[in-house]
Specification:
The chain is mostly helical. It has one domain. The protein has 6 helices and no strands. α1 packs antiparallel against α2 and α2 packs antiparallel against α3. The chain is rod-shaped, with a radius of gyration of 49 Å.
Length: 221
């Protein structure tokens, strides 16, 4: 009886040791899994931190792009307003040019009928006006500064045509006075920057006839 109880106790002890060992192995396995989970969690946290940093940089870049977009919109509005302003100036200058061209043509026809030299002056200045108009048409599609310069050139050409009208009005006087006025009209227009004020010095006036001066000026235009 005692031996059987001792055998049962030993069997129970062995069973308890086996269950304890199995439980210890289970605990070790759970600890290993927890360690793996901790490592994975740390890796994921690092990735999340990196993604947050990338997101922050992207947000900053988006903010910069939005500011640049606003600046571009403002610049486009400014350019559109400047273009509209230049177009209005060009339209006004073209109207002046058309009126000046018509006036120059009428005065040129009148000069041909009377045989005075302002016909050549009107033709030369009209050609210069047309060249300025062609240059303006090309410059209108470029920058605002170039377009404004072209508009100013047309205005100067229109002023030159007005000077022709004043020269034609001087044709009511003597032919000498008419020739002098035509020469002065051509030179004061000075669209190409070719002529100089010394051409009207008293010495030149005394040694050259107005007609020869006009022919020389027309040949150098």
């Amino acid at each position: 009886m005692l031996q059987r109880l001792q055998a049962d106790g030993e069997a129970a002890a062995r069973g308890a040791r086996l269950r304890a060992e199995e439980f210890a192995a289970f605990i070790d396995e759970q600890i290993s899994e927890l360690e793996q989970l901790a490592t994975e969690s740390a890796r994921l946290q690092a990735e999340v931190k990196e993604l947050n940093a990338k997101t922050e940089r992207n947000l900053q870049e988006v903010q910069v792009l939005l500011e640049e977009d606003k600046a571009v919109d403002a610049e486009l509005e400014r350019v559109a307003a400047a273009k509209k302003k230049v177009e209005l100036r060009l339209q006004a200058a073209e109207r002046k040019l058309q009126a000046a061209r018509q006036g120059a043509g009428g005065e040129a026809a009148s000069g041909a009928a009377t045989g005075t030299v302002e016909t050549d002056a009107a033709a030369a200045t009209t050609a210069a006006i047309e060249r300025a108009a062609a240059a303006t048409t090309t410059a209108a599609v470029e920058t605002e500064r170039e377009a404004e310069a072209a508009a100013a050139a047309i205005e100067r050409a229109a002023a030159a045509a007005a000077a022709i009208e004043r020269a034609a009005a001087a044709a009511k006087g003597t032919s000498e006075e008419c020739s002098d006025a035509a020469v002065e009209c051509i030179c004061t227009s000075n669209l190409g920057g070719v002529f100089h004020s010394y051409m009207f010095s008293e010495s030149v006036r005394r040694t050259s006839s107005p007609r020869s001066l006009l022919r020389y000026l027309l040949s150098t235009t």
